[in-house]
Amino acid sequence: MSARSFATTTGLRMLAASIIVMAASPASAQFQKAEDAIKYRQSAFSLIGTHFGRIGAVVKGEVPYNKDDVAKNAAMVATLSTLPWQAFGAGTEGGKAQPAIWTDAAKFKTGSEKMQTAIAELNQAAQSGNLENIKKAFSAAGQTCKSCHDDFRKK
User: Contact, 84 vs 40, CB < 8 A?
Assistant: First the structure.
């Protein structure tokens, strides 16, 4: 394992461990202020976008396919996809979130569940190493993201 690969792997493990510890903490203790919740969810979505984008570069043919890299990024996206939802509690309005998140909470919850399911399927496809299945799963996952952005994210 190269030093860069080791550093990247170690960094991802430390990030994942930190996220898991934060996710295990009670939400009320995490978010004393609405701004804290907004920063938390924006950070989670930013990380999701970064790792999802790395897979997208492969799917689009911009980067050569490397099974291990795609599998690691998909696993990270799967972990991260469970995190932002706890930061959308009552009183956390703001940021890029539209009011419909709180006025149509059932639709928002359904969208978040669809996204997490699609991301889990992407992770499964990535772990199999079948690039065609990865491409299909990536497209489906991207569509769930777009749908939620269209309905619940300020432009």
Answer: yes
| Structural contact between residues 44 and 87, judged by C-beta atoms closer than 8 angstroms | yes
Is pTM beyond 0.85? Reply is: no
Cα atoms in the 13 Å half-sphere on the side-chain side of 25: 13
Long-range pairs of 49-53 with CB within 8 A, sequence gap ≥ 24: 51/76, 51/77, 51/80, 52/77, 52/141, 52/142, 52/145
Coil/strand/helix, residue 153: strand
CB 6 within 8 Å of CB 60: no
Which tens digit of pLDDT belongs to each residue from 129-155? 999 999 999 999 999 999 999 999 998
pLDDT in tens, 29-39: 578 899 999 99
Torsion over CA of 50, 51, 56 and 62, rounded to 10 degrees? Answer: 80
Closest CA relative to residue 139, chosen from 15, 37, 52, 12: 52
Give the angle subtended at the CA of 115 by the CAs of 149 and 155, to the nearest 5°: 5
